[in-house]
Amino acid sequence: MSDSQEERPSITRQLAQKGLISPPLVGAARPGLCTDCGVSRMGAGQDRGKACGRACQFIAPDYPAMEKAVHGRAADPDLGDERFFGVIHSMIRARLDPPAEQAQWTGLTTALAAQLLEQGHVDAVLTMAPHPDDRWKPVPVMVTDPAALAHCRGMRMGYAPLLSLLEPAQAMGYRRLAVIGIPCQIYALRALEQTLGFERIHVIGTPCSDNTTTDAFHHFLSLLEPDPDRISYLEFRTDYRVELRFDDGRPPRTIRF
């Protein structure tokens, strides 16, 4: 999913115009089954090979140990929904009213991140923005202006080296971060957190439906809709339907899967 060296400066400039910081990517995803969380692209403070082996959610995960390190205890399968969701302090169902424009789940995720910046709890937010030429392709960005998070709303699909931003964030002097990430990214982040040297890392986790490339996702969209470029929103719903919305004014469409 990486861009050529010729394209990258242009992409960085276009994102900067929206208040989004997008440092050049270094290194590469490891060959094989790597989903490119970004750890293999770290170099300054990590032995990449050892870091991947220690941090990857798919190689040898130890969820009870990680839960104890982060939450103070492992999840109790006999305690409410912890069998399904891990350690829970409280569970709340919430939404923004009215929903934010171009948001996936009403804009609650980016609103939480914006509030962390506004209230001075963090120096920067690490998250994904859409590629300037492809609304579905994720580009890892740092955000320091709460208003700029509006450009990060919506779902991205594809491998996204979010954790490659940790070292640039550190080099820029950011000590307190918020990270919006999916499970494979957050597991790796927590596994390495104590070696990174940040004062505090707040996590806003989001679900992940599958591991795939952006190109493969475009193929999937073409199987659902004869004019896939007009699809502006996709949701894998809990009622076993895919919901599609369009940017040409037509009504939403649902497909059973």
TrEMBL record:
It comes from the Bacteria. Residues 175-244 form the Coenzyme F420 hydrogenase/dehydrogenase beta subunit C-terminal domain. Pfam families: FrhB_FdhB_C, FrhB_FdhB_N. GO terms for molecular function: oxidoreductase activity, acting on CH or CH2 groups, with an iron-sulfur protein as acceptor. Residues 91-167 form the Coenzyme F420 hydrogenase/dehydrogenase beta subunit N-terminal domain. InterPro entries: Co_F420_Hydgase/DH_bsu_N, FRHB/FDHB/HCAR-like, FrhB_FdhB_C. This is Coenzyme F420 hydrogenase. The lineage of its organism: Bacteria, Pseudomonadati, Pseudomonadota, Alphaproteobacteria, Iodidimonadales.
